[in-house]
Amino acid sequence: MEISKKAYAKINLGLDVVGKRDDGYHLVRMIMQTVDIYDTLEFKDNSTGQINLFSASDKIPLDGSNLVCRAAELLKDRYGVEKGVDITLEKRIPVAAGMAGGSTDAAATFLALNELWGLGLGRDKLCELAVSLGADIPYCIIGGTALAEGIGEVLTPISDMPQCYLVIAKPAIDVSTGWVYKERDSREIAHHPDIDGIRDCIEAGDLRRMCERIENVLEPVTVSKYPVIAGIETVLENSGAVRAFMTGSGPTVFAVFDSRQKAEEGLEAVRESGLAPEMFLSVPIKPADF
Fold this sequence. Notes:
By secondary structure, the protein is an alpha+beta fold. It is built from 10 helices and 10 strands.
C-alpha cells in the first residue's frame, strides 16, 4: 500500500514571547497561517520493519535525527507496528527558513502512517503525541488560521485569513532558532505585538488593519545580525505590498498583496534585487484545501 501527502508550510501573522518555562521552552502567543507551499512525501509499506527515508535534497539528514523518522518511530513503537515504511521526501519548502519545514514533514508523517497502518487515531491524539517531538507539529497537523499559545501546542482555530496574495522570499542565509531565542532572552521586549488585535482584524476580514498590527518580537533580533531581511522587506513594500514581515525566527520574509498583479510585480522586484534566491508566489489556505 502507498500513500502520498503534501506537507504545507506556515507563516506567522503575529509572534509574541510571553514567558519561559523551567525546562527552557518559551511561552508564546502566535497567529499561524498555512500557505500553499509544500513538500511531498510518499509512504510505502515494507516487510523489513525498517524506517527508511530517501530524498534528493542534500540539506536534510536522512537518518534517525530527522523529524520524519522520529515521528514514524514514535508511532511504530507506541502501537507495536511490525511492518516498516519507505518514505520519499521531495523538498520545496526552504530549509532553516522559519516556515516549519521539518515540523510539517513530521505532521504529514503522523497523518499518513495513521492511515497506512490503520491506527485509527483522531487528530487530537496525533497532536498529543506530536508535541513531544516539536511544538509546531500539532499546528501543522491542524493547519489553517489559528491562535497558538503555551509552547505553541494550545491551538484555537479562528476565521480564515482575508483573501490576499503572498510573496515569500528567503535570503541565502540560515538562521539558528536557538540563537534567536537566546538573544531575545538577553534583551528587554519594549513592545509586545497586539495578538488579540490581529485576531480581531482577521475575524472582521479587514486585510489592511490586520497588516497594520502584524508584528514579530523575534524580528529585531534576527535583523540586527542579518540586515538583508530588512532590505527584502523594503523592496517588497516599494513594489506595492500592503506590508512585509519576517516569519518565525527568520530569515524568510513574506509580503501581503491585495492583487495578484501586484504580487507578481513584487516577485519580479525581489528577483531583480538579487537579495533572495528562493522565492514563491503563494496564497493562504485552509484545512479544507489540504
